[in-house]
Design goal:
About 40% of the residues lie in helices and about 15% in strands. It is an alpha+beta fold and about 140 residues long. A 3-stranded mixed beta sheet has the order 4-3-5, with no helix packed on it. Strands 1-2 form a two-stranded antiparallel ribbon. Helix 3 crosses helix 4. It is globular.
């Protein structure tokens, strides 16, 4: 039994062609954060016959099953990534929309300290930084 089938079965989801194909896309794609439209475009370019409505339905099912995590950034587009159980934050490029992950222990500690000083204990959080790329040789510039 391969890993993707095992993952689907463990979540209680029936193993179907579209679910296997979309899960495999997330497991093998170089792009970690993808919208439904991104996935649909990849499927079209690979000549895979899965409709956009099915892509949306599968993404919702995967999110509910805990396979994927959804992030809604200020550009209004929801993106999904494999839920690997490790917390991280995001930097979103204001020019091309690329999303990069980062983890910083100092930021995490500071947030806990601020919450405690205000009389709270953090259960969960998300931090998204919106920035413009200043890399002179950015491979993602003008790809939008």
């Amino acid at each position: 039994m391969n890993e993707k089938t095992h993952t689907l079965k463990d979540t209680g989801l029936k193993v179907t062609g579209p679910r296997q194909t979309i899960l495999e896309l997330f497991q093998t794609a170089s792009q970690r954060h993808m919208s439904a439209e991104d996935i649909y475009k990849i499927l079209l370019s690979d000549k895979v016959n899965i409709g956009l409505a099915t892509v949306y339905r599968v993404l919702t099912q995967f999110e509910q099953a805990g396979i994927l995590s959804r992030s809604n950034f200020e550009n209004g587009k929801a993106v999904f990534e494999l839920n690997e159980g490790k917390h991280h934050d995001h930097i979103v490029c204001m020019d091309c929309g690329r999303v990069e992950e980062f983890f910083d222990a100092e930021i995490e500690a500071r947030q806990k300290k601020i919450a405690k000083a205000q009389g709270y204990e953090i259960e969960d959080h998300s931090l998204s930084l919106y920035a413009r790329c200043i890399k002179t040789a950015c491979p993602h510039k003008n790809k939008n």
